[in-house]
Each structure stands twice: as C-alpha cells, then as structure tokens.
Amino acid sequence: SVTHAERALAEATTLLDVMKVRDGAAALKAVAATARYGLQFQNQAAAFKLKAERKAGEMLAAIPRQHPRDSNPHVRAERGPVVVPRSTEYQQALAEARLGKQTADRWQKLASVPEDAFATFVETSEEITTTALLRLAPNPPKEYKRVHIPVNPSKTRAASSERRETLHRMASEG
C-alpha cells in the first residue's frame, strides 16, 4: 500500500534501503502503465519514485567525494611497485549500491529542486516524469566556457593557425 511504502521510505537510513523502495515504485509505475490503470495512478507511482530518488540524491550529496587530508590517496599493491588509487567514500558507496555515476548525478540534481517547487510540480503536472523535474533543477556553474571558433574551409591552414592562437590567448587569460 502507499502508506506502507511511504513509511518504508521515511524509515530508510541507507542508500540501499532507499534504492529498494525506489525500485518498488518503478516497478509499480511500469505495471500501472502496462495494465493501463490510468495516468493518475501512474503519476502517483512516478511521484513516489521521484521522492525516493530525491532522498537517495540527498544521501549521495552528503558523502565526501575526496580522500581525507591526512590519508594517502594511493595504496601499494602487495607485490611489486604498482600503485593503485584508493577509492573515495563516495566511489565505495556507488560501487556497493551498484550505481552508475550518471544515475547518481541525476538523483543529486533531482534532490537540488526545492521542496516547494517539487510539491507544485507533482500537484500541477499532467504527466510526472524525471525529465520534466530535471528542468526545474538549478544549473550548477559551468567550469568551462564553450567557445565557438569559426573555421573557413577555404583557409584551413590559416584558420588552424588562428584557432591555435585564439586557444593560447584564452588559456593565458584564464
């Protein structure tokens, strides 16, 4: 029942627990669509699935992504001079949950949508989808600017030289 699922999500304290609840909601949504239970029932399942993904995203966002300052980020293999990078706590959590980085990033982006905006989205959407909710997520600042450097095919050598100069200038300004 919905109340049981909501209680399970509220009581979930680990990423794996939240993922189990989320997987159940995803299965329910798929059954609702296949059995043609109607858009309202599908939307209820989709909204619950998104709630679970948002909670998982919040949990993931709280996990440190870097090694503690006092620890060595590399581990020596038992034999030979091979040095293997040690996993961060975040990488370990993804591996334990068998969760891809892209999915983890998407769930964190879903979690970044303010609660009031999420509630309004659920109440007013004709069809509740992950893609539609992602459009409401704030955009993080871009680290790199995409620059368009026009190329004139008839002057490829000159254009190549010009492009190289532009890139060098941009890098030195940088």
Detailed description of the structure:
It is a single chain. By secondary structure, the protein is mostly helical. The chain is 61% helix and 3% strand. It contains 8 helices and 2 strands. The protein has helices at residues 2-11, 15-34, 39-61, 89-97, 101-111, 115-124, 130-134, 156-173; strands at 74-76, 83-85. It has a two-stranded antiparallel sheet with strand order 1-2. Helix 2 (15-34) runs antiparallel to helix 3 (39-61) and helix 3 packs across helix 5 (101-111). The protein is globular and about 60 Å long. 18% of the residues are buried. The mean pLDDT is 81.
Q: What do the pLDDT scores average to?
A: 81
Note the beta-strand portion.
under 5%
| SSE pattern | HHHEEHHHHH
For the termini, the CA-CA separation is 56 Å
Q: Ranges with pLDDT <50 over ≥5 residues?
A: none
The assigned structural class equals mainly alpha
State the shape.
globular
Number of continuous helical runs: 8
Radius of gyration: 23 Å
Helicity range: 55-70%
Instruction: Please give the order of strands in the largest beta sheet.
Output: 1-2
Major sheet size, sense and barrel closure: 2 strands, antiparallel
Number of strands: 2
How would you sum up this structure in a few lines?
The chain is mostly helical and 174 residues long. It is built from 8 helices and 2 strands. It has a two-stranded antiparallel ribbon.
Notable traits:
globular, mainly alpha, 174 residues
SSE layout:
Blueprint: H1 2-11, H2 15-34, H3 39-61, E1 74-76, E2 83-85, H4 89-97, H5 101-111, H6 115-124, H7 130-134, H8 156-173
Antiparallel strand pairs: 1-2
Helix pairs in contact: 2-3, 3-5
